[in-house]
Design goal:
The protein has 155 residues and is of the alpha+beta class. Helices cover 41% and strands 21% of the residues. The protein is globular and about 50 Å long.
């Protein structure tokens, strides 16, 4: 995340110019080029999303919410019990995290963490999608997922 923020900061002027010229498509393309560039250094597909059209104009929010990290889109099962992943969400995010099973079809595993009044996190064996503002609690959970599920040290 730090690398993404640094690259967005370095390209702030170009992004601001695209928005000033009322060309949000250029800003969208540029910020996702930056995300792909940063992701390529870690062998992941990093994507930024703007589910609310007006959010593209909020340059300060770039890289702080609505981010997907795709490690392996074909991975179907978690390398550990799904209950551990759901319990860790409560432990790291707090009691406003409400994990539930989701996306469980065709032999796939998945979970959705509803975060009261903040949004949600979609957790799949090969990707994680943050549909919320990423604060220190959410980042802590994301870091844990990267270290223990997506790139475990013992594999």
């Amino acid at each position: 995340m730090d690398d993404l923020h640094l690259n967005i900061k370095r390209n702030h002027e170009a992004l601001a110019l695209a928005l000033k010229r009322r060309n949000p498509n250029i800003a969208y393309q540029k910020v996702n080029e930056l995300a792909q560039f940063v992701g390529s250094h870690y062998n992941v597909n990093l994507q930024l999303h703007f589910p609310m059209p007006g959010k593209i104009s909020d340059l300060d929010s770039y890289g702080t919410e609505n981010i997907s990290l795709v490690v392996d889109k074909f991975r179907r099962v978690f390398p550990m019990p799904k209950e551990t992943i759901k319990q860790k969400a409560i432990e790291l995010i707090g009691n406003d995290a409400k994990p539930k099973d989701a996306y469980t079809y065709e032999g796939k595993e998945g979970a959705k963490i509803i975060i009261t009044s903040q949004g949600s996190i979609e957790v799949l064996p090969g990707s994680i999608h943050f549909w919320c503002k990423i604060d220190s609690r959410i980042r802590s959970y994301g870091d844990w997922m990267v270290e223990n599920v997506y790139f475990p040290k013992n594999s």
